Amino acid sequence: MQLSSGVKPGCQKVIVYGTEGIGKSTLASKFPMPVFIDIEGGTKQLDVRRIDGLRSWSMLMESVSYCMTIPDKCSTIVIDTADWAERLCVDHVCASQKNKKGDAVTSLEGFGYGKGYTFLYEEFGRLLDLLSIAVERGQHVVLVAHAVMRKFEQPEELGAYDRWELKLKSKSNNSVAAMIKEWADCLLFCNYKTRSVEHDGKHKAQGGGRIMYTTHHACWDAKNRYGLPEELEMDYSTIAHCFIIPEVTPVPIEPEPAPVPASPTVAEKETVAPPPEPIPAPEQPVLEPDPLDEFEQKLEPDDGGSQLTWRDMFPALAELMDANKITPDQIREVVAKKKYYTLDTPIENYAPDFVSGCLVAAWPQVKAMIDESFDGLPF
Fold it and tell me: Contact at 8 Å (CB) between 140 and 11?
């Protein structure tokens, strides 16, 4: 148990959503040292660092894991957009699961009884868990999303009214939109300020400037934990003070004093010759690597090009496998048998909480399944 009190500074989880073309990605580009995981392909006109060409859910998870390994070059992980990430998640769920008859499905409705939305809710939660680890390690996370207007009816009201919501799947208790709103520290709704002007006895609507709404309203979802005003201009300078990367001052290490040599005796002075003076080596130019070279390499789907192998990512699992002479193919076959991941999914694509919570924590059961499945096979 660890008891703490007082304000605890740290990085934040932010959602920026609004109507199309209002400048959500531009706002996200102003956060500290951002790297865009550009799923939608909407940052081509922005001078930002990005990882694009993502065509699968596993590539998205790999991109987040890669950004977590370079905190000195990436202070903010930006996912653009959350609703396009959800589309990749839907395709992944439909490809990795089967319906009650054992047939492949093409949509969430094909599972029946709302099970498709449950699978989507659980899989998208793994992405949020991974992003939460990045926040704990000192990186901001920004999810950019589109807004959609839906009918809303409260139980105590007589009629329904329109309100802006996240453009994400919503199904009873398994709502991805509700889960993301609970997960975020700050939910900013961006829209145009509309004013009503009277002219010749008639009222006409006129468009105003771009506004960020920071608190909940009957017509939109928003929240913040920084005491921000209800309305702000859509400018990063109005919220920049909330997203400062905490600096850690290194403690200087004083070098140990060199030992004082003992004075030579008279005999040593006569027999021991003085050491020759060292010849200085010629100075060589030091070539500094370009930190942006890594971002010019695009991720390819499941080609094993990630810098970290599964042994580097999951050392505890590698140690157990080596001790029991278990191969990666045996692990993948048992995981596929339990329908956690497909057989062709590399171990590098497994979620960290799945490896630590299922494979490592329940290793005796995993090994028993492997021994039972591969009994009598030559290895």
Answer: yes
Pick from 139, 183, 132, 169: nearest CA to 351:
132
**What CATH number has the domain bearing residue 114?**
3.40.50
Residue 16 and residue 144 in contact, taking contact as beta carbons nearer than 8 Å: yes
The widest CA-to-CA distance across the chain, in whole angstroms, is 116
pLDDT in tens, 277-315: 665 655 554 545 544 454 444 444 444 444 678 888 888
Residue where one domain finishes, among candidates 219, 242, 265: 242
- Residue 343: domain span: 309-373
Mean pLDDT across the stretch 188-205? 75
pLDDT of residue 376: 45
CA distance 322 to 85: 36
The one-letter amino acid code at 281 reads A
For residue 312, CA distances in Å to 67, 201, 239 come to: 15, 72, 38
| Residue 129 counted as domain residue | yes
Its pTM surpasses 0.70: no
87-125 burial: b if 16+ Cβ within 10 Å, else e = ebbbebbbebbeeeeeeebeebeebeeebbbbbbbebbb
Among 242, 265, 280, residue at a domain's last position:
242
Q: Quick one: pLDDT at residue 172?
A: 63
- How many domains does the structure of the chain reveal? 2
